[in-house]
């Protein structure tokens, strides 16, 4: 089985790596957390969080995949672990090395075997003029488009959502922070299958990338509630909100036991006039 959700950001809307991590941390399954891939051609920072100076998982996996393909169990051998038990294949910091690894991997995604949980693949900034920036974009089963909520970001997002809909790729819009438009307007303008709102939450964002050094008052372990299945705690608003994104992806990918949902009809992008 192959289930891949690509996560990409529109220009000027950073936050995609954080959203991927939050979504995996929010996933509720006895099987653990979905595997996150830092497959950003611009390079990644998570290796510096997990094992500074160590070889990035993406480079090792790319070397092996040519011979052995992309099999979940094998790939997991080269995954590091973020806070909250999120497994991640990290990208090298250097964009040239990241691009080279992704080029090697590009032909492999199509025949990847992901196991029962989907892979959540951070593909970085999306350029709507490129039909196939790299292999994940070409064969993902769903796209999460991470964007800020202001008009310019949404207009740019509409360009990408249109490219995705042209190839029947169901898209969920993850709007980070304030957004004056209603869900309905965002859905209509971007022609997406769903919209999820995520808060601007510097504390949780810092915890997710291992940069919180101030201790975690009242908690024995980050995301303990998620790990133990106990009721969700309010201390990580971003992860709490990302559970809606996890559910939306489960529906779209058919991993919640239902058949994958059909892509909604897409109208022309039509954001409200004015500001
Ligand atoms: N929802 C959020 N609330 C608060 N801070 C955030 C949020 N999302 C991201 N950040 C912060 O913004 C910065 C960029 O986030 P992140 O690395 O996730 O973006 P990115 O789009 O992956 O960037 P890059 O282009 O470097 O890969 C980080 O310092 C992160 O902690
Ligand atoms: Mg990133």
Task: Outline the structure in words.
The chain has 275 residues and is of the alpha/beta class. The protein has one domain (4-253): 3-Layer(aba) Sandwich (Rossmann fold), CATH 3.40.50. Helix content is 37%, strand content 15%. The chain is built from 11 helices and 8 strands. Strands 3-4-2-5-1-6-7-8 form an 8-stranded mixed beta sheet, sandwiched between helices. Helix 1 crosses helix 11 and helix 3 packs parallel to helix 5 (95-105). It is globular, with a radius of gyration of 18 Å. The chain starts with a strand and ends in a 22-residue tail after the last helix. Bound molecules: adenosine-5'-triphosphate and magnesium ion. Residues 16-17, 40, 44, 122, 124 line the site of magnesium ion.
Give short descriptive properties of this protein.
single chain, eight-stranded mixed sheet, Rossmann fold, binds adenosine-5'-triphosphate, 11 helices, alpha/beta, 275 residues, binds magnesium ion
Number of strands: 8
Low-confidence stretches: 215-219, 261-270
Query: Strand content of the residues, in percent?
Result: 5-15%
**CATH T-level topology:** Rossmann fold
List the total number of helices: 11
Structural class: alpha/beta
Strand order of the largest sheet: 3-4-2-5-1-6-7-8
Bound molecules: adenosine-5'-triphosphate, magnesium ion
Q: What is the CATH homology-level superfamily?
A: P-loop containing nucleotide triphosphate hydrolases
Cα end-to-end separation: 45 Å
What general form does the structure show?
A: globular
- The CATH architecture classification is 3-Layer(aba) Sandwich
Largest sheet: 8 strands, mixed
- CATH C-level class: Alpha Beta
Integer average pLDDT: 86
Classify the helix fraction into a percent range.
25-40%
* Total tally of structural domains: 1
Cα gyration radius (Å) = 18 Å
Compressed to H and E, one letter per element, the order equals EHEHHHEEHEHEHEHEHHH
